[in-house]
Amino acid sequence: MQEKSENQFSIEFFPPKTISGESKLDRVFDELSRLKPHFYSITYGANGSTKKGTQELTFRYQQKGGIIAPHISFGETSEKDIVSLLGEYKKSGVGRIVVLRGDRPNGSVDKLRYANELVEFIRKKTADQFHIDVACYPEIHPESDSIKTEVKHFKNKVDAGANSAITQYFYNPDAYFHYRDYCVQNGITIPIVPGIMPITNYDNLSRFSANCGAEIPRWLRSRLEELNGDKQGLQEYGIEVVTELCEKLLNGGAPGLHFYSMNLSASITKIWGNLSLSGKST
Ligand code: FAD
After folding, report:
1. How many angstroms separate the Cα of 173 from the Cα of each of 56, 254, 277?
2. pLDDT at residue 105, as a whole number
3. What pLDDT is recorded for position 282?
4. CB within 6 Å of ligand 1 — which residues?
């Protein structure tokens, strides 16, 4: 798929907490590598709780030949430690990072508060050494009171030096198109890549969505509730819905797709295959 398209396709993993989780992710990585995504990103646990895990996984999968973009947020990490982490990334050939505020830390030890400040800090310390991705929210971040505030704060990250953005997931393509157009009207011209969450587990999805402000439309929720308990049926239906979403997004000019894998490969592989077969990925 990569050869067929200039679009950016990427896949996100989180650092596993157990040895068996690591072995499972190694298999998932190998399976998804066949799809030749442009890069993989590795999340950074709230308050830097997976700092070591993020770093280790980044280096390990780099050695397996992947282009890895580790996520970074300040959490309870000091500025000095961020500079040292960036130095290690640079030394190992990491050229891309995803910069986030992360979930609000309890008793943060440094003065940085919002992601735009971290982007600015990283640019000040490392100039143009990294391609910086930031997060944005077509359905509005739970702490933003309006689309106007949302986009104003997104623009601060762009003005601070972000090169591209990845969105929170959503299931209504119009949310993305309206948001993208509003961003362009407000002078944001960097690529805004939709974040795509495959549907594999209704209870987890429902919980995540309530926390992060992503809407599960009524028509989708009611069907998923019906299928809850039928693992295979739910997954198949999820593949159908998410394939259609991806096709609409790409046909409407989205510059790529970023898959939240939840460290699973089956749905992404099928969705990707469907897009490739329908020839709508270019
Ligand atoms: P910000 O851009 O700082 O925005 C946070 C909120 O503050 C927004 O409501 C914004 O409008 C508001 N705001 C910004 N500036 C100001 C200001 N000056 N005054 C008042 N309000 C302001 N979390 C993790 O912990 N680890 C991860 O690895 C991770 N990866 C993610 C990847 C993607 C693609 C996405 C979409 C999210 C990810 N998250 C991750 C979740 C993210 O950390 C949370 O959504 C977090 O609450 C906001 O992070 P941000 O970088 O968007 O923050």
Report:
1. 35, 10, 21
2. 52
3. 40
4. 43-44, 46, 71, 73, 98, 100-103, 114-116, 135, 141, 143-144, 149-150, 153, 157, 166, 168, 195
